[in-house]
Amino acid sequence: MLGVASLGDWLGLLATSVFAATQVESDAAKGLAFGGVIAVRLLPALVLGPIAGILADRFDRRYTMVICDLLRFVLFASIPLVALLGASGGVTVTWAAVATFLIEAVTLIWIPAKEAAVPNLIPRARLEVSNQLTLITTYGITPVLAAAVLAALDRTVRGISSGEPPAWVEPAQLALYFNSLSRLATALVVFFGIKEISGRGGRPDGPGQSVMKQFVEGWRFIGKTPLVRGLVLGIFGAFAGGGIVIGTARFFTNSLSAGDAAFYLLFGSIFVGLAIGIGLGPMVIRELSRRRWFGMSIVLASASVLLLAAAIHLSMAILGAILVGAGAGMAFLAGTTLLGGEIADEVRGRVFAVVQTGTRIVLMLAISLSSLLVGVGGSRELRIADLGISISSTRLLLLAAGVFGIFAGISAFRQMDDKPGVPVLPDLWGSVRGRPLSVGESFARSGLFVVFEGGEGAGKSTQVNRLAAAVGEQGHEVVVTREPGATDIGVRIRTLLLSDGSGPSAPSPRAEALLYAADRAHHVATVVRPALARGAVVVSDRYVDSSLAYQGAGRTLPVDEVSWLSSWATGGLKPDLVVLLDVDPAVGLARAAGRGTAADRLESESVAFHERVRYAFLDLAAADPKRYLVLDAALPADDIARAVAARVTELLAGHGTDPGDRTRADGETEPVRPPKPPQDDRMSMADNAVEAGR
Ligand SMILES: Nc1ncnc2c1ncn2[C@@H]1O[C@H](COP(=O)(O)OP(=O)(O)O)[C@@H](O)[C@H]1O
Ligand SMILES: Cc1cn([C@H]2C[C@H](O)[C@@H](COP(=O)(O)OP(=O)(O)O)O2)c(=O)[nH]c1=O
């Protein structure tokens, strides 16, 4: 209903401002005229915005909406009726202006009441979809539709009446009647159909607070709540960027030596972008944190303004405009949804009023100032003859707006980030593919976490014990542990995983991956983290990499899915050092067989399986060489033990002897002081091993 009713508004704004601009000659005057019309249209927001918010919070929102719509019904209808009743041209035009002003004023009161009511009607999870619909009809489809409908109406009327049509079927008048009736319909639907808008029993008397106090309180709430402040500033920033693009578009198309058609194309592109952003945005980013999405969208919009500033061809400018629209649309959608979902009912009306008043004022200032500025500066431009580009004031303004917007986006992002420490781009990428990164559980950690990895019979158990003895001798608390099976629950999981040979009783690959992850989650929570928090050196026989190698490469499950599962299980805990004992599967399996115990379910896998596992381990090590010590497992056990002890001693020294000074919040973050790369003979051993693996 809202979408249909706002049909004429957009076209009106555009048409009048262009019309005004064509009435004067000089560039500066054009700028002034274009900006001036828009400024006048948006002026009522300044006066009425604050009042609207208080009305929405103080009185029954349903009655506010119904009264506003009835007023608009009368006002819209009055414009053509005055002319029909035979008023003189001057009176008609004056009344049209007065009525438009009044309609604008009433709309200002209607919107916050409606916006504040919506979150009460719709479950939170559906809020985004509802906003999507409202915004896309208001900003995305309607302006385009309005142009099409008006053009079609015009042609039809002229076609039927062949010649000058009678006054009452003038397309513009028909559109006004249409507007008028759609308002009446909205009023009736809201009054009889959506009684729930009144909320919890209505609020006929409003809270017992003075209007002034309510006003001040609303502003204080916005200023003091970081999320709301970030949202409000971010939305303003997005509108300022959009405003500058609209305000400069006319002159910008000139600097591309493109005509009026190009201007309309550029203007239309912004709205196409808005529709794309609002309509498709949520589908693309899926589970991404909405708070992060908001900041990122503003950065996207601003960066696209930069693209626009640098555009040397109309196609580049159109792409820029579409992206500006998409970014602004997504920011607007995310912002509105966050505001609706996270702000208490009592202050919601005022916050929405500030947003709508603010956006109008920001838009007004951005459009009028920028069109004025480029109008004045339009004649001064620097031609770079060879490239055929002119560096006009328009481009400089766009450049400044883009840079400013990027800073605004980043600062909004920082203020309200709900996943601190989680890297931004991997999170975005993961979300697009349906697996957002989770926040690393933070805890104060002062110990050292060393993990041994490698194939069967590589000598991990042997080396774990050797290292534990060596570190213990240095006076550190050592916790020796392993996966799977270091806890009571783990022992039971281990039985499920490794006994029961093959056939239908064996877990399926995904079940196997989940069981290892379950063992790991419990192990990390009950053994590893508490020990690290105490400052102990934790030495584990296998950890996450085993899952990546065995379940990922071995069972050929997607490695990034297994990785995500493990990082969810561990809350992002990464080892400080992974010692990879690289062994030829033939050698390792023979050694394992030599232990005299029966081969378990995984040991019985094919040689090809174990080959895949081996190369997966080597790939992981090659991807993060700082964190890994790769050793050839064929070396004598004593040599290996010495190399490992040396590296761990170095790490312990690097952390300082007092474990207390290494307190940090752990997560996906690297250690504060990353271990130094291996030196001397250990280096050559590592290289040999990696070399052997290639
Ligand atoms: N560096 C080494 N050289 C030769 N044999 C070794 C070496 N390290 C361990 N072994 C032997 O290989 C077998 C498997 O060792 P183990 O530590 O149990 O490996 P894993 O825990 O990796 O399966 C044991 O019999 C052990 O004595
Ligand atoms: C930790 C882990 C182990 N495994 C496998 C590797 C081993 O074959 C098996 C048990 O490992 P392990 O305890 O090292 O057995 P052993 O001491 O007999 O060598 O579990 C995985 O497949 N995924 C994992 O995440």
Automatic annotation (TrEMBL):
The keyword Manganese is annotated on this UniProt entry: no
Record PANTHER family: THYMIDYLATE KINASE (PTHR10344), UMP-CMP KINASE 2, MITOCHONDRIAL (PTHR10344:SF4)
Family named by the database record: Belongs to the thymidylate kinase family.
Catalytic activity: dTMP + ATP = dTDP + ADP
GO molecular function, one term: dTMP kinase activity
Keyword presence, DNA-binding: no
CDD domains associated with the record: MFS_MefA_like (cd06173), TMPK (cd01672)
Keyword annotations: ATP-binding, Kinase, Membrane, Nucleotide biosynthesis, Nucleotide-binding, Transferase, Transmembrane, Transmembrane helix
Highest rank taxon of the organism: Bacteria
Annotated EC: 2.7.4.9
Top enzyme class: transferase
Binding site for ATP: 454-461
Protein name: Thymidylate kinase
